[in-house]
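Write out structure tokens for phosphate acyltransferase.
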Amino acid sequence: MTRPIIGRVAPEQWRSTGATAPGQRTVGEPGTARIAVDLLGGDHAPAVVVDGALRAVQDDPSLHLILVGPAEATDAVFAALEPAQRHRITVVLGDSAVRAVAEGRADAVVSAGDTAVTVVSATRALGCWPGVRRPPLAAVLPTATGHLVLLDVGSTVDPDAETLAVHARLGAAYATAVHDVPEPRVGLLTIGTEPGKGDRLRRAMPRRLAGLPRYIGLVEGHDVVLGEAADVVVTDGFTGNVLLKALEASYSRLGGPESTRAAVLLGVKGVVVVCHGAATGADLAGGIAFAADLHRRAAIAAIVTSLSDNPVLTYNEVSHD
């Protein structure tokens, strides 16, 4: 898997019709979304990333992309676009796509690169909300009754009880603020619903989650598919990632419901969307559209507002200026 490089961009490394020099903050037009995309992220980069970028730009006339990576990789994008569309593409030669968000040149970032590198880059460049030490990745899955938020799906594979409790609260706030679930039911994924089921971490969680307004207790794997018991299911990143990939493969092979094959990193001061390393061009386009939608919804501010009554996660500084 290709690993993105963390660092800065020299001013002469910008290529665009009307590019802004690094360090100079810009503000997009109302309705526009400026998405930084990691060209070198993913098992099949840069080809699938270029394909996804092209699809995304053609699908959304208000989308502006900052492609971070080698200039030659973007030639196909410029060649396929109409001349009037090319001004919506900016190329930054080789470095961190997350930094474009931190410096105010992009509204969100999308990467299919190494998850650990993306998470570390985001926490260092953007910063975490107070009370969040290890931000989780949240995915929205289709269920038999609608949709369900599953987290963590790969960011923190070995959380402690405190971290998992914070993740549960973040997932509930995300479901409320972005997916219009006023009082989300939160369940803890384990191997049975009887009290005391699971490993030491799972057995320690019920008393920590008891303060959540609608903590419904333990849930099992089938509850994630059915969606009848909970609106948010919390687990460690190892289990969540295995479950997510198993469900996506099953849906794909068996003709099940489609979903956006991307996850949002919750708890950092910016919109960060992570796609699978094996993402296709369509997956990357979906991830870019997802990131643009989160920006247009002002998702970060909405989640913060939902958390405002929680003293553990009070976050008053939404911007990272």
